[in-house]
Specification:
Layout lengths: L1 E6 L2 E3 L12 H10 L9 H11 L3 E7 L5 E12 L3 E6 L9 E2 L2 H18 L3 E4 L10 E14 L4 H6 L3 H11 L4 E5 L2 H18 L6 H11 L3 E8 L2 E11 L2 E9 L3 H4 L1 H15 L4 E8 L3 H8 L5 E9 L16 H7 L4 H12 L4
Parallel strand pairs: 5-7, 12-13
Antiparallel strand pairs: 1-2, 1-3, 3-4, 4-5, 4-6, 7-14, 8-13, 8-14, 9-10, 10-11, 11-12
Helix pairs in contact: 2-7, 5-9
């Protein structure tokens, strides 16, 4: 068992457990590329981008067979925050990831390694957002909070419309006839417009915005497998989404709209146009991402005809420790959320990234 610490822009190797040879960059990439259950959040590209943008170190827990070949990996970002505490998160700012292993025995070994790493670093918890669920001392399941939404794309626009329930389909048709325009790209102008819209959207929801460097780092790391789609009214951006593409699946990841977006049905156009854009890129599946059960986004995705799939996460806690609370819907943050909604956008954009980088 060994682990590797990633300090972008270069990789630094630290022997954490037994002195077994650590994976080079190519070995890490090859293992993820060959594994059927791998997600973009297991990739070196994601892990290095998160470290580069936030400063959170990435530790890679690895397992090998008797011949020295990799049999499992677990990337963990060491997230630290004066407000939310610290944790090893697999992986940082992701909705999936967790243990990636050849078999259950290897998965159990990686879970033991993650707990051992947390103890050695003095970190009170490990948070895994996907993958095999560990069992044993200190580990607990967390379920009933999030659901994921994904389905196959239809072959063409007409069939895609028919896949949407009638009421939502009518809204999409109105959006398609509205005169709004759509642009896609990765250049500085698209990035600027996307961040402005996303920052406005999350401020209006009462949550701090992530640093712009995070979006830039992910776009740069994934190159042609990440881009931005923006809906415009007369050239003015009103809704925008940054998406990842992974193994034929498009994943709208960071998106939002201005106050006018709902009136203009810009979000309806945005997601339908993204489905079209994804088909043109050769994608066959649309992953609408996760949402908290019982929230507006949860209901919105169901309205599009996506069936919720419960997500079960895992957390390890050191003896006597309590889990981090990073849920903006938590009662303890109600006053802060209400106050945040009233902040001028310039102030929210200045303060928000300092807070949000600690959410992980």
């Amino acid at each position: 068992m060994a682990h590797r610490r990633v300090n972008a822009p270069t990789l630094a190797v630290q022997d954490g457990f037994s002195g077994v040879p650590l994976p080079c960059a190519g070995e890490w990439d090859a293992y993820v590329a060959a594994h059927a259950q791998a997600t973009p959040f297991h990739s070196r590209a994601w892990c290095e981008a998160i470290t580069r943008a936030t400063g959170h170190q990435c530790h890679l827990v690895t397992a090998r067979d008797a011949n020295g070949a990799l049999t499992g990996i677990l990337p963990l970002h060491h997230v630290r925050s004066p407000l939310f505490g610290q944790a090893l998160v697999g992986s940082g700012f992701a909705v999936d990831g967790g243990i990636l292993a050849d078999d259950p025995a290897v998965a159990a070994t990686l879970a033991q390694g993650a707990a051992a790493m947390a103890r050695s670093l003095g970190v009170p918890s490990v948070e895994l957002r996907g993958g095999p669920l560990p069992e044993g001392e200190g580990w607990a399941r967390e379920e009933g909070v999030y659901a994921g939404f994904a389905r196959d794309l239809a072959a063409a626009d007409d069939a895609e419309l028919l896949a949407i329930p009638r009421k939502q389909r009518a809204e999409v048709r109105k959006a398609l006839e509205s005169g709004l325009t759509v642009t896609t790209g990765r250049d500085a102008a698209e990035r600027r417009d996307h961040y402005r819209i996303y920052a406005t959207s999350v401020r209006n929801l009462g949550t701090p915005v992530f640093p712009k460097a995070l979006f830039d780092a992910v776009l740069d790391a994934f190159e042609g497998d990440a881009d931005i789609l923006t809906v415009r009214e007369g050239g003015r951006p009103v809704a925008s989404v940054l998406s990842l593409t992974w193994r034929g699946t498009v994943m709208p990841y960071w998106g939002g709209g201005t106050a006018d977006a709902r009136r203009l049905r810009a979000n309806e156009l945005m997601y339908f146009a993204l489905m079209r854009h994804a088909r043109e890129k050769g994608c066959t599946r649309f992953d609408f991402g996760r949402s908290k059960v019982g929230t507006g986004p949860f209901a919105y995705k169901k309205n599009w005809g996506f069936e919720p799939q419960p997500l079960v996460y895992a957390r390890w806690l050191a003896s006597g420790e309590r889990p981090r609370d990073t849920n903006p819907n938590s009662a303890r943050y109600r006053l802060q959320v209400d106050l945040w909604k009233k902040l001028p956008l310039w102030a929210a954009n200045r303060i928000g990234p300092l807070i949000a980088r600690g959410l992980g």
